[in-house]
Fold:
Amino acid sequence: MSTVTRRSVVSGMLAGAAASIIRASPAQAQQAARAMKQYKNSDFYGADGKFNAAAAREAYYEMMRAFNYPIVDRLKTDDFWALDFNLGNFLEAGMGGIFWVNNKEHNYFGHEIFLLPGQAIPEHKHVKTDVPCKMEGWQPRHGMIYLFGEGAPSAEIKEPVPPMHGEYAKTRCVGMLKPGQVVGLPKAEEWHFMKAGPEGAIVTEYGTYHDGAGLRFSHPKVKL
Structure:
């Protein structure tokens, strides 16, 4: 993922005017992160080991309130979902999300991604089905993210691939993306994933139509 690393991510494509709508200052972000509850992984699982999506959603609502992100009515419906990807370690492998729009006819997509501190989306790629494979770009609204992609291991950033990926990880190139920066996939069907920094992250994703049938994960145990 050459455009996600080194100078390209450090410089980014400035979109500060848009990001400032819901972005906290660095001092505010740190203060809000300190105010958030320190969760344990067990907070998100019942005695039977089953993932508690309602508890996960409440954690994301807390993060939204901490960073003054507007919790509109639609975020209180089932359109807003939380996943642990069947890996049983929500604080390491999980996300919250809402598809604001996913228009197949005109081929556009808008998604908001919510990640608790240090949380990562499992490594994945998008392949062609009866529609072209999805292409996408990301803009952090709050917090920073690490973006992992294909290519040689990055020398500048020493953020390791999360343990959940184990032997299955195909990405070793990593860059940082901060509020006010935008970057996208450089080529179709590239393996990639993101991980939140220590404050958590709220990320806007812009993309072409999302066909769930074209989604592939490198970890064989992942399920949606």
About this structure: The CA atoms of residues 115 and 128 lie 27 Å apart. The longest strand covers residues 95-103. The helical segments are 6-11, 16-19, 26-35, 53-66. The mean pLDDT is 87.
